[in-house]
Amino acid sequence: MRSQIIFITFAIILVLVQSHWSLRSEDRCINYYRTGRNFDLNQMNGEFYAVYFWPPIQRERDTCGVLNFRIMSDEDVEAATAECDGVIDDDDTVVQATYRNSTGKLVNVIYFGNEEVKHLMRSCDKVYKYLFIRINDDYVMGINCSSGGRGILLAKYLPGLSEVQTVVRGIEFMTGREGKPDCPLQ
User: Fold this and answer.
1) Contact, 135 vs 171, CB < 8 A?
2) What is the pTM of this model?
3) Which member of 38, 63, 167, 185 has the lowest number of beta carbons within 10 Å of its beta carbon?
């Protein structure tokens, strides 16, 4: 009985320490990548190609992933989040991204927010802190601070490898982090 109490107490302490560390990790990520410039989600409308990932994704696709972004109307937001009580504020800009994952399954996610730190919602109980950073007119970077700062470089068109490498070298705050495309770029 005593050993069970000690084990349960240890497990509770471990969970509390882990959740505290995770929050601190998320805050450190936000503070590191925050630019002070608020990215307008209305710029995320149309097709974007996923051309580079930090850290590298282990599998390689035959073609680059395409994310289809669309700005959601109030009615669309209400329908998509009817079961998510108060997750999205009425004045938030909301966009939906649709893509096929590596197994071919169609996935819909929602990005929302009007502050510099946005949110990525996979479901009512899976909402992550997310930053979008404009790199130039053709490239946007997304950083999921709830996933250890996992980054993705999105392009408005399918670029060549040398162009992507040039863009990546120019992203100073990613210097030293290992990354690579997950698809063949010509």
Assistant:
1) yes
2) 0.85
3) 63
